[in-house]
Write a structure and sequence with these properties.
By secondary structure, this protein is an alpha/beta fold. The protein contains 14 helices and 15 strands. Strands 7, 8, 9, 10, 11, 12, 13, 14 and 15 form a nine-stranded mixed sheet that branches. The protein has a six-stranded mixed sheet with strand order 2-3-1-4-5-6, with helices on both faces. Helix 3 crosses helix 13, helix 4 runs parallel beside helix 5 and helix 6 runs parallel beside helix 7. The N terminus is likely disordered. It binds benzoic acid (BEZ).
Length: 404
């Protein structure tokens, strides 16, 4: 953990020194009033992400996506050079408060960007609220962050757990399924996602016959897959992501169930995982706020640039990181780089509207994205668009008293 900070600190030190040399020269010539000097200083961005464990690839892609946007702007946002700090949160909620305090208290970052895991995000939200630190959540969908715990200093560039799964209820009912089993990890994201799916499915007229779960991040699925075979539902709805999703999809196919009991899920089941899942992923239908082949200019440009930078195919995690930097740029541009002008920064971020690679993106009163949710199917080794399952889906932000 501290190793990755130290590692980055030495890399960043070079960048920092280069940045501060320019600042000092300007100061010595007495050309700028003090606020301009402050605005030319590097802005400290703290990444608190999983760089190890089952969500390691997700964290890396968010980091890469964010850096890609900054590089495209010439290394600065709104005129401010960016200095990066990293903490590997290992997707461990119990370490969340300490890791956050390390960035906020010790490194004194200006903004924290993180994280992937909903349980870790809950700890981060509490510290962000207590210390009034700007927090941009580039993945974790925990409903509370833009629900009862919403705050002007907390933004999300990803989704709420409710938002991406509720539309799947109607999709599966319309496909003719009536009795469905859900399966997930037993933690906030899993419980909220299967809960949102059930809400939509029951509303449409369907029945969830059994909710199966195992502790995060366990991957011993066999007993639960056997239970599915015994129950013989019309279909299965699943939430897993990262390494766990790879194993679940392969185990499900190896048990021979994919032929008789169609597998559906939240899009994380197959996003960024298809190369490792191979043929086992074919035909899986999911809902998410992204599809690989979205036919818009921003997506095409993003996928080309991401491939050039990393040699890999972009996915939703990279998009969410990219958009986190774009959101910060909106705040910084409005204040000519003055991140301390908090009221104006927040107002500009709340009003931001982008042509994101995912399609049109804006923010609701709780600082959660308003965005399309797509039905996708795995074909040709990618998540291909089937239809728009929900246009401009807005999370209900239950319990949020408007943060602005
Ligand atoms: C979550 O914990 O919120 C989460 C993790 C991975 C993918 C999507 C959501």
């Amino acid at each position: 953990m501290s190793q990755s900070i130290t590692l980055l600190r030495s890399l960043d030190r070079r960048r920092f020194l280069m940045g501060s040399a320019g600042v000092l020269a300007a100061g010595a010539a007495f050309r700028f009033p003090t606020p301009a000097i402050a605005q030319a200083a590097p802005l400290k961005v703290g990444f608190m992400l999983p760089y190890s464990g089952t969500f390691a690839k997700l964290g890396k892609f968010i980091d890469d996506g964010f850096r890609l946007y900054v590089e495209q702007q010439g290394g600065s946002l709104g005129g401010r050079p960016i200095q990066f700090f990293q903490v590997d949160d290992e997707s461990k909620p119990e370490a969340g408060t300490d890791n956050m305090n390390r960035l906020v208290g010790r490194e004194k970052v200006d903004v924290v960007v993180g994280t992937v895991h909903s349980g870790v995000a809950m700890a981060m939200v509490k510290v962000a609220r207590d210390t009034n630190t700007m927090l941009i959540i580039p993945n974790a969908g925990v409903n509370e962050a833009t629900g009862p715990l919403c705050a002007p200093n907390i933004f999300r560039t990803s989704f709420s757990n409710w938002q991406v799964c509720e539309p799947m209820g109607k999709v599966m009912f319309d496909a003719g399924h009536r009795n469905v089993v859900s399966i997930t990890w037993r933690y906030a994201a899993g419980q909220q996602m299967v809960g949102a799916f059930a809400e939509g499915f029951i509303k449409a007229g369907g029945k969830v016959v059994e909710e199966l779960a195992l502790p995060f991040p366990e991957v011993e699925f066999q007993a639960l897959i056997t239970r599915i075979a015994t129950l013989k539902p019309d279909a299965v709805f699943a939430f897993f992501a990262g390494g766990g999703a790879v194993k679940f999809v392969k185990d499900y196919a190896a048990a021979g169930l994919s032929k008789s009991i169609p597998l559906y899920g939240a899009g994380f089941l197959t996003d960024g995982t298809i190369p490792a899942q191979g043929e086992a992923a074919n035909g899986i239908k999911t809902t998410l706020h992204y599809a690989d082949n979205l036919d818009n200019a921003a997506n095409k440009a993003f996928l080309t640039a991401f491939k050039t930078k990393t040699g890999q195919d972009g996915d939703i995690y990279a998009v969410q990181g990219f958009d986190a930097a774009a959101l910060m740029a909106a705040g910084l541009s409005a204040t000519k780089g003055d991140w301390a002008a908090r009221t104006q920064v927040v107002a500009a971020m709340q009003a931001a509207k982008f042509d994101s690679p995912r399609g049109p993106l804006s923010f609701n009163k709780a600082n959660n994205p308003v965005q399309n949710v797509y039905l996708r199917e795995v074909r040709n080794g990618r998540n291909e668009l089937v239809s728009v399952a929900g246009q401009a889906v807005n999370d209900p932000a239950r319990g949020c008293r408007a943060p602005a």
